[in-house]
Structure formats: structure tokens, C-alpha cells
Structure to design on (134 residues):
């Protein structure tokens, strides 16, 4: 089994896709006016309009209602990304902080309020843990 994507449901896919293109540096592929994918080397961030949920289970997901999932991106230097992203993300939830499990993390919200974590493994154990995943 391969984990290939995570999908975010939104009322404004153009705004959310533009945000993720800016923070990731990736270019989205639009398949319809309601659905786009932002690819990264390891996974894809899919972004879809709320109306696409009618194709699944109409009220199974609600735009902007997430308070339990964090979208995470491993980056080469979280402190450099913090400086680059400061004008884009505005207020951050948590400035770069080294976590007990060995990652240095920056936490902010996307325009829909979803939590985003940029992190860099900084301890030998964390670095080794992530080197085994490729």
C-alpha cells in the first residue's frame, strides 16, 4: 500500500492552491475548476471545492472545520523557511522550536485555518529515522 495524497476540502480552491504553491514552490495541476493537486516528491496535496463532496458523501467533510489534522512538510532548514514564509503566512502558531522527538518545527495556518507544520530533523536519531524512509 502507498500513501499518495491528503485532500483538503475548501470553499475557495483558487485561494488555497495559490497559498500552497507559494509556500511549497510547487506548481499545481488543475483537473477541473473544483480540483487541483500540488505535488511533492513524496506525497500529493489535493485541494477540492466543497461541492465535490456530493460525489462522495455530501456532508462527510466540511471546509474550514478541521481541528485535528496537521499537514506536514519536511524541509531542509526550518529556520530559513520561517524567514521566507513570514510575509506569506502572517502570524504563526509556533515559531521554530525543537521538539522532544528531535524535529525543529514551525507551525502556522493556511487560509482556511488548517494547521501546517514545516519541520527539519535536527537530532541524530531524528535524522536517522527520516533517512530510512527514502
Amino acid at each position: 500500500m502507498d500513501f499518495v495524497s491528503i485532500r483538503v476540502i475548501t470553499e475557495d480552491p483558487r485561494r488555497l492552491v495559490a497559498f500552497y504553491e507559494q509556500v511549497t514552490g510547487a506548481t499545481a495541476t488543475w483537473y477541473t475548476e473544483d480540483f487541483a493537486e500540488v505535488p511533492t516528491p513524496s506525497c500529493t496535496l489535493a485541494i477540492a471545492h466543497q461541492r465535490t463532496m456530493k460525489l462522495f458523501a455530501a456532508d462527510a467533510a466540511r471546509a474550514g472545520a478541521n481541528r485535528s489534522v496537521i499537514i506536514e512538510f519536511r524541509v531542509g532548514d526550518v529556520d530559513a523557511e520561517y524567514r521566507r514564509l513570514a510575509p506569506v503566512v502572517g502570524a504563526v502558531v509556533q515559531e521554530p522550536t525543537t521538539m522532544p522527538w528531535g524535529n525543529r518545527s514551525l507551525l502556522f495556518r493556511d487560509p482556511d485555518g488548517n494547521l501546517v507544520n514545516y519541520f527539519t530533523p535536527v537530532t541524530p536519531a531524528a535524522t536517522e529515522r527520516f533517512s530510512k524512509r527514502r
